[in-house]
Amino acid sequence: MYGVKYRVQYKRRSGTTTFIHILEEDYVGTITDLDPNVNPFEISYTTDVNNIYTPTVGAGAVIRVYVQPLTMLDLFTDDDQKYKVIAYNGSTGDTANIFFQGFVNTDIYFEDYSSSMDVPIEIQCNDGMQVLDNIPYLDTSIYSSGAYYKDTTYYYIIFQNILNKIGLTFDNIYTSNDLRIADFATNFLFYLAVPHENFVDESGLLGLVERFSIVVGAWYGNEIQRQ
Q1: From CA 27, how far away is CA 176, in angstroms rounded?
Q2: pLDDT grade, residue 222 (50/70/90)?
C-alpha cells in the first residue's frame, strides 16, 4: 500500500490545475507540499511509436521543484518501486484524470549541497517499463509462493502477468500491428499461446512483442498539449 508523502500543484495557462503526488510504499503520515519550479512537469517518450525495432514505447517525466537543502535524500534508494508518481489533470479523486503514472528513478539524485537557501532539484521518473528488468517472472500467488510459472498459456495472460508485477493500473494497453489470424480475430493475443518457460524475467515482454514486430505502449496524455 502506498501513501502520499509529497505533493506538487500548479495552475496551467488553460486555468486548470495539475496535481502531482509522490507516494511512498507503506507510508503513513503528513503530506509535504513542494514548490513548483519553472516548467514543473515534463513528459518525454523513449522512442518512435512507428519504429517496430524498438517494440516498447516507454515514457519518462521530470518533476522540477524547490526544496530545502538535504530534505529529499530519501528519494535515493536501491528500491526501484519505493516511490510511485501519479499526475492528475484537474481533481485527484478520479482515475480518468490521470495523465502520467510511474516510479521515481531512485538511483538518480542531485542537488547543490553548498546552498543554505531553497535549491531547485529535478526528480526523474519512469512509467514502470524500466523496472521490469529487475523483477523475476515468478508466480507470487498464495498457491505458488514464488515458483516459476508452468505450462502453456495465451499471450494476453503473459502480458497481464508481467504488467501486474509493476503495481500500476492501466486502463488501456495500445498495440500497433497489422497481423490477423482470422476474419473474426483482430487481436491475435487472445488466440495464440506460448510456454511460460520462455520468460525467465520481466524483460520477457520485450521478447514477446519483438517476435511479432508489434509496438506496445501505455499513454495518458501529454502535459504540453494540455496547457
Answers
A1: 38
A2: very low
